[in-house]
Amino acid sequence: MSEPVPQIKSYYETYWSAGKQTFSGATYGYAPNFRRWMTEELNDLPATTPVIEVGCGDASFTTDLAKKFTSVTAIDISAGQIAENAKLFPGIKFLQHDLSERIPFPDATFEVAWCSEVLEHLFDPELALREMHRILKPGGRLLVTVPYHGRFKNLLIALFKWDVHFAPSNPHIRFYTNSSLTKIAAKAGFEAIRIKTCGMGQPLRDFFVPTNILLRATKGPLPRQA
Q1: How many Cβ atoms sit within 10 Å of the Cβ of residue 113?
Q2: pLDDT at 174
Q3: Are 193 and 141 within 8 A, CB to CB?
Q4: pLDDT exceeds cutoff 80 at 155
């Protein structure tokens, strides 16, 4: 497995050093909505279900998964963050991996793939989704979150935040709508795709300008033998 491009690796080492200060790790903002959704979508599965988190960062959601499931694996591009996570949470398997490459697990290894706030950072998100499809068992579940970019939000960005939002230093390089995220998941082979949005726990603001898209999809069953 090759090392990530130095500039990208350096960025992510810094990005995850913020840890619990990020919205994904905090107990405010959209994180509680993610956790509620995770519970709703996975509550019916047994504790022995094999789960992978793709892009675990500071392990904020990894530890939530580990409270329910006994077999949790988490991967991330940041070697430094992975090493820190492994020290703090020895019961979870952590692995450094660059998602521009094949995920280093055999076909049909996991029953759940959780990928939160990752696809917007990738040059080739379709490759990552195809790889998640490959390593899921038939009937396996994919749960994805990405920042939301609907028409109204994009209008506000164009009017007030264009330079900041599209600055070269912004780590987000993909900008998803409900439709575009659905299409890329379907192209990667996923079925039974369901989409919803969430926000920051502020009902009026969240109604007009959601912050995130939540996607659930399933890997279809194996084709019947002739």
Answers
A1: 24
A2: 82
A3: no
A4: no
CA distances from 23 to 54, 193, 223 (A): 18, 26, 41
For the cut 80, the answer to whether the pLDDT of residue 8 exceeds it is: no
Largest CA distance in the chain: 58
CA distance 25 to 60: 5
Q: What is the token pair recorded at 82?
A: 């992975």
Dihedral angle sign, alpha carbons of residues 80, 33, 215, 221: positive
> What are 19-26's contacts with CB under 8 Å, separation 24+?
19/58, 20/58, 20/60, 22/57, 22/58, 24/57, 24/58, 24/60, 24/61, 24/116, 24/117, 25/57, 25/58, 25/60
**Which two structure tokens, joined as six digits, stand for 56?**
């675990």
Domains of the chain: 6-218 (3.40.50.150)
Assign 106 to helix, strand or coil: coil
User: What percentage of the chain exceeds 70 in pLDDT?
Assistant: 72
Helices 60-68 & 31-42 angle (0-180, nearest 10): 30
Average pLDDT, integer, range 84-107: 96
Q: Calculate the average pLDDT of the chain.
A: 83
Question: What is the tens place of the pLDDT at every residue in 168-197?
Answer: 665 667 879 999 999 999 999 999 999 999
Per DSSP (E only), the strands in the chain are 50-54, 71-76, 93-96, 110-116, 136-147, 190-198, 212-219
Structure tokens at 168: 């070269």
Q: Higher pLDDT residue, 205 or 114?
A: 114
CA 100 to the chain's CA centroid: 15
